[in-house]
Design brief:
Structural class: mainly alpha
Low-confidence stretches: none
Largest sheet: none
Number of strands: 0
Number of domains: 1
Number of helices: 2
Oligomer: single chain
Radius of gyration: 31 Å
Order of helices and strands: HH
């Protein structure tokens, strides 16, 4: 073999190694990043929908307490529906914090 054939073979092998390293780096970085991006997207969308739904439910509770109780919360007691709604919101927030602080759920499958 001549030197040029050997040098060409080494260049070819080096090119293959570089391509292999680049492909491996893409596989190990871009794949997990896509997964993290998808996880964040669905997490943000889900929590946004949950927050809007909870706000609508709390507003509905406030309006129900103001309109459906007749004159019970009239006069000097007009603040009571706001306190009750704030209390309900605090209970929901406390439940959420408690659940998050408790950690991930354990599977309850057959043993």
């Amino acid at each position: 073999m001549t030197r040029s054939v050997v040098a060409e073979g080494v260049r070819s092998d080096a090119g293959e190694v570089v391509e292999l390293v680049v492909a491996y780096a893409k596989q190990e970085t871009l794949g997990p990043l896509k997964g993290v991006g998808r996880f964040l997207l669905f997490g943000v969308l889900g929590s946004s929908f949950l927050a809007v739904g909870l706000a609508i439910l709390l507003l509905g509770l406030l309006r129900a307490l103001q309109t459906e109780t007749g004159t019970t919360f009239a006069g000097k007691l007009t603040w009571v529906p706001y306190l009750a709604t704030g209390g309900a919101a605090a209970v929901v927030a406390a439940l959420a914090v408690w659940r998050v602080a408790r950690g991930p759920a354990r599977r309850q499958g057959p043993r």
